[in-house]
Amino acid sequence: MSIALVIPDRKLDQLQQKLQQQLPGVAIEIWPDVQEPEAVTMAVLWRQPPGCLSQMSNLKALQSFGAGVDNILIDPTLPDLPLARIVDPMLTQSMLQYLQGVVQHYQLRLDEFSAQQRKQIWKARSPRKLQFICVLGLGELGQAVASHFAGLGFVVSGWSASQKTLAGVQCFAGETAFSDAVGDADLVICLLPLTALTENLLDQQRMALLKPGVILVNVARGAIVDDLALLQNLDSGHIAAACLDVFRTEPLPTEHPFWQHPAILLTPHISAVTNADTAVAQIAENYRRSLAGLPLLNLVCQQRGY
Ligand code: NAP
Prior knowledge:
With 306 residues, the protein is an alpha/beta fold. The protein has 2 domains: 106 residues, Rossmann fold, CATH 3.40.50; 178 residues, NAD(P)-binding Rossmann-like Domain (Rossmann fold, 3-Layer(aba) Sandwich), CATH 3.40.50. The chain is built from 9 helices and 12 strands. The strands form 2 sheets. It has a 7-stranded parallel β-sheet with strand order 8-7-6-9-10-11-12. The chain starts with a strand and ends in a 14-residue tail after the last helix.
């Protein structure tokens, strides 16, 4: 019995070693050099090429190497097996730190001062009034983010598919409540998963429901935002600024207009990166569970896509 790491374009020696320490005696194979595909019972996946699991005829469980699973579920050849994802307090901590920095960046008008600096303009301005934050998606990350900013004294609303109750956060659920959730927000943070229902969710129509002068932060997945609609709304000033950590195509193609747009702050998908140690502990535990016939930790509902 063995585990296959199917995570193309990444150095996996350390992950392999750490996993080996947790599971002595279990072969940890790195795809595409899998010696005995029929011995593999668990595949650890991230952006796997379609068809790559076809030889692994005894697979029992699938494990995402990250919090998201959209890049895994997109594979039409994916076997119908339990799929788990990583849920990690360190990942949440890293997302909170990133968003804290982003909110302060805009509160302090560092975006505007940086533009002024490039034109050698000396002009003092008081901090931006940023009181109301809306968090789209109230899952593992969204709930932590909403509670964090509520605890700091911001007025916070949250939006999810099913109704939530969260101390200090005004919670809204479902399509019809979207405009109420976002309507007063000075800054909107997207922490939705990418699914058939959320692809292009932030399109021209929904952007029109945002408050004029809003700041949009996307740390979820690029394809949730309609790129063209975002550019049009930034150009018109309806959206004052956007901070983007995720993109439809990554790395962002050099010719993409986001690179040069003066109202966009762009980071290369670094807001919350999977911690190898936590991931290894969860992968090992799920491996043991799959052999014992127990339900995996942090199971994903493949039908709804998250
Ligand atoms: P999660 O626990 O699965 O939560 C997803 C939330 O979105 C849930 O509250 C869900 O509502 C809501 N939702 C899903 N579809 C919806 C819809 N159609 N309308 C309204 N709400 C909807 O996910 P998470 O762990 O918080 O992570 C969120 C996403 O962040 C991940 O999927 C991943 O794409 C992204 N991410 C990015 C980074 C990065 O480095 N940038 C790192 C980690 C994760 P219900 O609770 O009612 O189901």
